[in-house]
C-alpha cells in the first residue's frame, strides 16, 4: 500500500473532462429502449404493463453500463494525469507526466473495441464507457504503481473480471497503455502537450500529429487504411 500524494504535487489543473455520451449514443440508447418497449406492447395485446416493463428493464441495464462515464473524470495537471471517479474520498490513479512517452499519444476511433484488440478487458487502464467511440491513449506509469492506496493486480475483483473476459492474468510491468474515452480528442491532446511543456519535456506538435493520424479499432490500422 502506498501513501497518498499531496495535491500540490500535481501542479495546476489544465483540463478536465468526463467521458459522457454525445447526442448519437444517447439517441441510439433511447431508440433501442423504445423499440423494445413498443414491440412488446404491440405483440402482447397492447398491454401497457408489459410494455412499461420492457422499457424499464432495458433502460436500467443501459443506465448501469453508462453511469461510469458520468462518474469518471480525466484530469490533466501540469505534472500528473489523474484518472478515476470523483466521488468523495476516492483515490485516483496518478500518472506522472514525466512517465508518459509523448510519441505514444494516439487517437482511436471505435474506441469501445480497443480492449478486444489489446486483450485488455477488465483492466483499470481502460478509462472509458461502453458507448465511447473516441479515445486518446498513451504509455505511462504502470497501473500497479499509479493507484495511491492499492495494487489492482492484487485485488480479487480485477482477477475475476479478467478471468471472465479473457481468461488471462493481470499483466505486470513498469509501464501500461492507458486509454481515455472522450467525445473530442483535440482538447485532451492539447492539454497533454501543455503538461509536457510545464514538466520540462516540451513536445511541440505532438498533439497535432496524433489528431491527424487516428487509428480504427479493433484493427488498429490508420483511418485511411481502414476504408474510412
Could you explain how this protein is built, in words?
There is one protein chain. The protein has 8 helices and 10 strands. It is α+β, with helices and mostly antiparallel strands. The protein has 2 domains: 7-20 and 72-225, no CATH class; 23-66, no CATH class. A 6-stranded mixed sheet has the order 6-8-7-5-9-10. A 4-stranded antiparallel sheet has the order 1-2-3-4. Strand 2 and strand 3 (80-85) form a beta hairpin. Helix 1 runs antiparallel to helix 2 and helix 7 packs antiparallel against helix 8. It is globular and about 70 Å long.
Return the domain count.
Answer: 2
Instruction: Name the structural class.
Output: alpha+beta
Pick out the low-confidence regions: 1-6
Overall geometric form: globular
Q: Topology, please?
A:
Elements: E1 13-17, H1 23-42, H2 48-66, H3 68-71, E2 72-77, E3 80-85, E4 93-96, E5 106-109, H4 114-118, E6 126-127, E7 134-141, H5 143-146, H6 156-165, E8 175-181, H7 185-198, H8 206-212, E9 215-216, E10 221-222
Parallel strand pairs: 5-9, 6-8
Antiparallel strand pairs: 1-2, 2-3, 3-4, 5-7, 7-8, 9-10
Helix pairs in contact: 1-2, 7-8
